[in-house]
Amino acid sequence: MELDTLCEKFESGDISKEDFIAELKKMRAFSKTDRFKLKVVDNAPFSMWACDEEYIIRYWECECERIYGYSSEQAIGKRFLELFVAAPERNQAELECKKIIEGRSAPGEFINNMAVDFDSLGRDVTLMTNCFRIFDDESQKWLQAEIALPTDVEKVVQKHADILRNYQKLQSTIARYENDKKSFLESVGARVKDLTAVTRKILNSRRKSILQTEDIEKLDSLQSTIDKTRRKIIGSIDENLKIIQEAKSIEQCSAASDDYVSCKNVCRQMLDDIQDYLDDIVEELKVDSITHTIELNQARSEAIIESDAEGNTLLLRINNLIQIAFDTSDNLSFRSNNDIPRKKIEQYTSYVGDVQKLLSSLKAKISQCTSKSQIANCRVEFTRNLKRIEKNLDSNEESV
């Protein structure tokens, strides 16, 4: 009976521990095939190591010390991600390791990579790697094993460039949502401020004997509800943004962004519900001046929301053009020194500033409006100026 067959029968429970030991004693020594396998491992020019689900190195064999500069005593017990994996590649390495150990790859499937690691002296080490799952009899856990062979750096340039580009895109996407969060919470703060101001104005009418005791209690409770809602919105947005920030790939970031957008819609609905409740109170009280204030604040909020939507749509288009120009610049840099993408990026960036200034100016003007007609005039002027920027953008695109 071959040693491999004997071990398989013991692991599957087909033979007892006593019978297993007895068979081993009969064999007394490894077979010729087993001795050959050990000789290959001992003399192979490649590195061979294995880590657990916490990315901690458990085995460090063959040429690992020669390639990386770490002895087994220095490497075992350390996380391989920080020991020798370059920062831009860590997200991908972590995802692949998790996939292998969890058995989400096909049976017998190997994950092959061209990796640019670094050794104990900080020098680049270019390797052709082969990663797969093995079962560790000692710890009774699945591990990721990697066999790696040093290779020519020219063969990995393109893949390394792709990984770096995807890493930069991921960081850019995360930064865009961080800016969106800031803008959204500013708009939430403005709505909360308006709701609070209206509520306080109603309560300040007590001296006019407009409100009944139950109305006062209702409004006092509403003020508390507004503050709790604001804190809840901030917490929900922060939680959803954190998932985006922790994404390891563009695909994960995209999936998390869907939840982030849904969360924003829920938050808006929460404020809309408070607004509706406050409107009902005002209607019941039939206070004309207060009704006018509410309608005016509502018109301001709607004008700002609509303008933000128009401005953000144009900003998204401009940002996409900037990204295209960046990609074009990356591609051209391999062939010639071309200034066209750089000039385009500068022009598009100036358009971003123009739109942002236009939005800030509109908000300042709307806050000073005392009637719906004034607000409407501000919106008309804003739309006209926004279309002017968009027309310039169209002309700029056609000139490419």
Automatic annotation (TrEMBL):
The name this protein goes by in its record: PAS domain S-box protein
Species of the source: Petralouisia muris
Lineage: Bacteria, Bacillati, Bacillota, Clostridia, Lachnospirales
